From TrEMBL:
<protein>
    <recommendedName>
        <fullName>DoxX family protein</fullName>
    </recommendedName>
</protein>
<feature type="transmembrane region" description="Helical">
    <location>
        <begin position="12"/>
        <end position="32"/>
    </location>
</feature>
<dbReference type="Pfam" id="PF04224">
    <property type="entry name" value="DUF417"/>
</dbReference>
<keyword id="KW-0472">Membrane</keyword>
<keyword id="KW-0812">Transmembrane</keyword>
<keyword id="KW-1133">Transmembrane helix</keyword>
<feature type="transmembrane region" description="Helical">
    <location>
        <begin position="113"/>
        <end position="131"/>
    </location>
</feature>
<dbReference type="InterPro" id="IPR007339">
    <property type="entry name" value="RclC-like"/>
</dbReference>
<feature type="transmembrane region" description="Helical">
    <location>
        <begin position="87"/>
        <end position="107"/>
    </location>
</feature>
<feature type="transmembrane region" description="Helical">
    <location>
        <begin position="52"/>
        <end position="80"/>
    </location>
</feature>
Amino acid sequence: MKKWILSFQKSDVDILILRISVIILFFIFSNIKWFDFEVEALKPIISNSWLSFLYSLLGFHYTSYLLGIVESIAYIGLFLGIRQPKYGLIGSLLILLTALVTVSLLPQLGFDGFIFKDILLIGIALVLFKYDLNRAYPTN
């Protein structure tokens, strides 16, 4: 047991599991943005928030597609960041950006558990960003 604990302490398996969890989450979120049911689900959220300008600018479907593209770039960046930390930095910054934008909707929309979970994503994005920053630009 002691050997296993020591091995775990020296490994990066925790960061890898965290990264893969976010990749899966954003893979799913980004890909459902291309379907009508998600376009419809986003209407009450976006229409009643400061993001409503996107509907005027892009329309309902293209707003959903834009969100899906940003989320896709985020998870692809995180995936590539497994081996190339500079891509991981891009992915984690996009995760942070999407989470901050989503959390900014809380005052306008009231408590919503789906939106509230993005507070956790802010912390996750910061952990992944710091990890990849240390890998991309080591201080030693």
